[in-house]
Design brief:
CATH class of the largest domain: Alpha Beta
Protein name: YjjG family noncanonical pyrimidine nucleotidase
Order of helices and strands: EHHHHHEHEHHEHEE
Number of helices: 9
Organism: Snuella lapsa
Pfam families: Hydrolase
Radius of gyration: 18 Å
Distance between the termini: 9 Å
Number of strands: 6
CATH architecture of the largest domain: 3-Layer(aba) Sandwich
Length: about 230
Amino acid sequence: MKLKGITDVFFDLDHTLWDFDKNSALAFKKIFKLRELPIDLSTFLAHYIVINAQYWKRYRDEKIDHETLRIGRLNDTFKAIGFSIDEALVYQISIDYIVHLTTYNHLFKNTILILDYLSIKYRLHIISNGASDIQHKKLRNANISHYFKTVTNAEMASVKKPNPKIFEFALKAANANVAQSIMIGDGFEADIEGAMNVGMDVIYFDPKNQKKNVEIKQIDNLIHLKKYL
């Protein structure tokens, strides 16, 4: 059923439009090859994805800073797979990762199609917890930056999703009315609950069909946004 009165559509970036897991895997594959590290990529990623998610939650909750996030997730993953590695090399890999990550820019299926479709009818925006320079590189290198009127990140707002202040900051930057805005993201706590707490409508992007809440509008493919918008 089509939603009425919506003028502004806010998207999360990582895991919603930009395929973080695929791009991250390619970055680590390149790094391990360049540094000639005998690490099984699939084993590493099986642990890293879980550990990274845990670190990002702590980062969102203001329990750790960005430097601890970048180094800690690597240290814990190497320990989990039993790979002995020098501390200085871990630090260098954390830098390598940031450098190489934005050279891969796979998007979720139908991202361009849906952005083309929505941009005709709505003003589009980004709200992200990622670092400003990295997120802008992702948008630019993936050739989607031109779709978005505003890009709000945690550095600009001085808080992270799900803190209501970042949504209020984004709404003000976009000159958007909360009653005429909608948030689309994969993070149930950060994107969905965060936006709902300031009165925004929401659509939960759930490509793995986890179905956390059947009462909330959900899609497993971005093209299904056409059902609502």
